[in-house]
Amino acid sequence: MATATSTPTTDRLSSYNPATGEVVGTVAVHTPAEVDAAVARARVAAQAWGALSFEARGEELTAFRKAIAAHADELAELLHRENGKPELEAYVEVMMALGHVQHAAARAESAMAPKKVSAGMLANFRATISYHPLGVVGVIGPWNYPLYTPMGSIAYALAAGNAVVFKPSELTPLVAVKLAEIAAKTFALPNLLQVVTGAGATGAALAKSAVNKIAFTGSAGTGKRVMMAAAERLTPVLLELGGKDPMIVADDADLEKAAEACVYGALTNAGQACISVERVYVADAVHDRFVDEVVKQVRALKVGGDDGDLGAMTSTAQVAIVKDHLEDAIAKGAKVLTGGPGAISGNYIQPTVLTEVDHRMKVMSDETFGPVIPIKRVDSLDEAVKLANDSTYGLGSTVFAGKAARSIAARLRAGMTSVNSVMGFAGIPSLPFGGIGDSGFGRIHGDEGIREFTRVKSTAEQVMSIPMNMMSFRQPKDMTKRLKGMIKQLYGDGVIAKAGDLFRRLR
Ligand code: NDP
């Protein structure tokens, strides 16, 4: 989606600093033909890269990681200027992206190791599952975490033996261009990681191209368009589509820690995170104390400036969404304890705490993607779980509780849950990351994130001949009769089936 802060021209696109309105730089607007050409070049690179050993790919990825680390200052500066996030958060993003390059490189061989599985009834067979690179992976990235989020696909796709064509958001293209420059200088193979730039049309061209998989991060609406475009070639898609993450605070939670986690989880990156805490359910007995603590901590935060805790919102379009959600909530009876729609100035939004909220309000049902903390009082943990699960989204979630913490976590309908911490799952590279429902499907990170960029191959190898061969027309005359007996014996209530059931129960 084009936004008010970007101006595509016929052949160049400008990237603006949302804090100052200054142009940070310009990039090319790649046409569909140029996207197709990039995919064709990537195909050549993929063939050579996919044929390398894990060790050789691991060495190249380690060199890539070191090169990114060597350019951390430039990358953080670009993240700060293009996205509007404070410098500290920009460095955190670079560090987290590096963690994934390291993890993916280290885990690829093990995650893709062939597996021998039971051949079942065909005991004379050797059955194996093996994992192979797909070829070329198209990555369409968002503007909120322009390096970390796409790296969750890029690093894992590369480690699995694929080449990548990456289309960044038109709001944050320069970070991606820098990453491609680093890749071009580091990898021995040309065109292993290419970047194509432009607005939505360039992304649409990538989704329609001959890539073997599309990994998309962004809104549910655009995700559906990407999936429809990919359907033309039956290209598989991985969709990471944001969420409306709930946080539950029980009456035996450590309230100060819960408030600290809530404030950080809702306000980091000015609330523009797919796993932001977007709604909070607090047990009646501790509601007022929790709210007071949250308001106290929020009021101590600084918005804007070099040492600010919250930076500028990345786009004016996003500011408008947040303002709309706040006005809708207030019109329906929400109470503003700090911040509010009157505390918005240009691309800066003062963090806002709301109480007296309910699920009729957009702020409790739609993705706000801004620095807003709506807090709802609940009478019981059952009510908290019911309300937390009352969403079409299902990405992350947070539980602060004492003895019931794990059981609450298990009942949450979400791809990920952090218990007595916030966003913990995003900091652990071995945990798969992704959601359900409107939050999308497929997983980045972890071993699942590596196998997401592979094709699964099943091999059945007959290792010895047996007299009865089911895969043949040459059967004895009484075969039908024998089969009838076998069905009863193996799967009905015959002696063999009963013994098998007993054995399985005992295991
Ligand atoms: P989009 O979903 O439109 O953008 C995500 C990516 O998709 C960008 O690279 C964008 O490119 C690209 N894109 C846009 N149109 C197409 C298309 N037709 N085919 C292929 N790619 C396309 O995000 P918005 O900027 O519209 O953000 C709106 C909302 O999405 C936010 O309010 C937030 O709720 C959610 N969001 C969630 C994110 C997450 O982390 N899950 C990240 C970003 C947004 P370009 O920018 O050049 O248009």
Distance linking N and C termini: 54 Å
Structural class: alpha/beta
Q: Treating each run of at least 4 consecutive H or I residues as one helix, how many helices? A: 17
CATH superfamily of the largest domain: Aldehyde Dehydrogenase, Chain A, domain 1
Q: In the CATH classification, which architecture of the largest domain applies?
A: 3-Layer(aba) Sandwich
- By CATH, the topology of the largest domain is Aldehyde Dehydrogenase, Chain A, domain 1
Major pleated sheet: 7 strands, mixed
Overall residue-averaged pLDDT value:
95
- The low-confidence runs, each spanning 5 or more residues with pLDDT under 50, are 1-9
Outline:
globular
Proportion in β-strands: 15-25%
Radius of gyration: 26 Å
Q: Which small-molecule ligands are present, each listed once?
A: NADPH dihydro-nicotinamide-adenine-dinucleotide phosphate
Helix content: 40-55%
Could you say how many structural domains there are in total?
Answer: 3
CATH class category of the largest domain:
Alpha Beta
Number of beta-strand segments: 23
